């Protein structure tokens, strides 16, 4: 073999039987081959296991899928290039022209955009309600056949709590599938409820480091098998290197989540006691209007603390600009603390009445609490609150 040929066919190094890598290697390859054409054909017919093309599956992304399915307490998982990719591909895979989707004013903006703008172009209608209005949900499900009920809990950014037992019961009775974006609560929560499909942005708590994007759809095997071909055809696949980074992030998921929740609870107390703050939105606080429901459904209340400043937008600007340890940017669940204001929340496309019922005010601030020392975070927030109050 000439050297020019050899560099394209380097020596294969395989671990001998009984010898294993402690951290699984990244299968940074697009293609896999079988030894013979007959075996290739058998694989393509579904007659033997294996891997062929990374857009369909890859051992590194598969390892992540299996781990996430187990963490969320379901049989199967598909991972995607981003959380929004997981939502878009799920909506496209599960709906057809003439279907109706139920969603909520408190739902994450880009999800509402996908339902309204993208599905709307293909003749799929939707109704948007308030997440706490179970009577309206019951009425709507009785009034028309509904394919999907899509919700979050806690909601972004106001941390309202969905009554998961009631929503899933109503949807199941009406023959609608429930899709729950469980990004805020994490993989270790809500698995015991009768939710058909869980969606997560892996960009957040799974990775933790804020240096990689990903998404996941987790459900019973039959549902995921029905979506797998569409997902592969849509092509928003997670890269194996990103899957490796997310697998690495997950090793510290539980300790990070719990430490971030503990700091969030301390900050929520500080905010609750400060005269510059009209209302704190943190489900772990006894003063949260749905604290009882949150305590029934959740073991950990998350690291997102939102609140309304009495001084409105001007106070919010002073608050955000005074903070030193909180990065003024999107996303959440990372090891650094983050802050956003309403003007950073994008085109929400809600009517004045819907905006009002969503709970967002001109003085609302959303904090994502990171892994910094809580004393430093408390001091930083206290200083910014004083500036907001001046
Ligand atoms: C609740 C929720 N779902 C989905 C997403 C989208 O995830 P990604 O940024 O990975 O596309 C986000 C992002 O902020 C989110 O907050």
- Specify the helix fraction band: 40-55%
The fold-level CATH name of the largest domain is Aspartate Aminotransferase, domain 2
Secondary-structure element string: HHHEHEHEHEHEEEHHHEHEHEEHEH
The count of DSSP E runs of length 2 or more, i.e. the number of strands, is 12
CATH level 1 name of the largest domain: Alpha Beta
Radius of gyration: 23 Å
The overall average pLDDT, rounded, is 97
Name the hetero compounds present.
Answer: pyridoxal-5'-phosphate
User: Could you say how many structural domains there are in total?
Assistant: 2
Question: Which characteristics define this entry?
Answer:
alpha/beta; Aspartate Aminotransferase, domain 1; binds pyridoxal-5'-phosphate; Aspartate Aminotransferase, domain 2; 14 helices; 41% helix; globular; five-stranded mixed beta sheet
Concise overview:
The protein is α/β, with parallel strands linked by helices and 390 residues long. It has helices spanning 3-6, 37-44, 59-72, 83-94, 109-121, 134-143, 164-174, 221-234, 240-250, 253-272, 291-297, 312-322, 352-358, 374-389, and strands at residues 76-80, 100-104, 125-129, 148-152, 177-181, 197-201, 215-219, 277-281, 304-309, 327-328, 338-340, 364-368. The longest helix has 20 residues, at 253-272.
């Amino acid at each position: 073999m000439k050297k020019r040929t050899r560099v394209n066919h380097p020596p294969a190094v395989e671990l001998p039987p009984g010898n294993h890598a402690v951290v699984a290697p990244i299968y940074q390859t697009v293609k896999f081959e079988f030894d013979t054409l007959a075996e290739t054909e058998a694989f393509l017919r579904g007659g033997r296991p294996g891997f062929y093309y990374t857009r369909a599956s890859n051992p590194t992304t598969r390892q992540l899928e299996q781990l996430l399915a187990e963490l969320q307490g379901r049989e199967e998982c598909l991972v995607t290039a981003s959380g929004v990719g997981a939502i878009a591909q799920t909506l496209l895979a599960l709906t057809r022209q003439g279907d109706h989707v139920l969603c909520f004013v408190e739902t994450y903006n880009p999800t509402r955009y996908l339902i309204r703008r993208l599905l709307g172009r293909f003749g799929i209608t939707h109704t948007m309600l308030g997440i706490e209005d179970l009577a309206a949900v019951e009425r709507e499900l009785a009034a028309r056949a509904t394919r999907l009920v899509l919700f979050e809990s806690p909601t972004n950014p106001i941390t309202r709590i969905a009554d998961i037992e009631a929503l899933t019961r109503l949807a199941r009775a009406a023959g609608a599938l429930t899709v729950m974006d469980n990004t805020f609560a994490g993989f270790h929560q809500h698995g015991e409820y009768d939710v058909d499909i869980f969606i997560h942005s892996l960009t957040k708590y799974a990775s933790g480091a804020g240096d990689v994007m990903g998404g996941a759809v987790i459900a019973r095997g039959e549902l995921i098998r029905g979506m797998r071909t569409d997902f592969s055809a849509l092509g928003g696949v997670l890269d194996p290197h990103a899957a490796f980074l997310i697998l690495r992030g997950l090793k510290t998921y539980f300790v990070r989540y719990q430490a971030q929740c503990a700091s969030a609870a301390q900050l929520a107390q500080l905010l609750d006691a400060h005269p510059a703050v009209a209302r704190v939105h943190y489900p772990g606080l006894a003063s949260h209007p749905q604290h009882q429901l949150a305590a029934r459904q959740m073991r950990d209340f998350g690291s997102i603390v939102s609140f309304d400043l009495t001084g409105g937008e001007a106070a919010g600007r002073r608050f955000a600009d005074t903070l030193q340890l909180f990065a003024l940017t999107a996303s959440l669940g990372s090891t650094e603390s983050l802050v956003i204001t309403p003007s950073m929340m994008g085109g929400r496309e809600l009517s004045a009445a819907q905006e009002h019922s969503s709970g967002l005010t001109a003085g609302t601030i959303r904090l994502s609490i990171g892994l910094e020392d809580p004393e430093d975070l408390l001091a930083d927030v206290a200083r910014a609150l004083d500036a907001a109050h001046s």
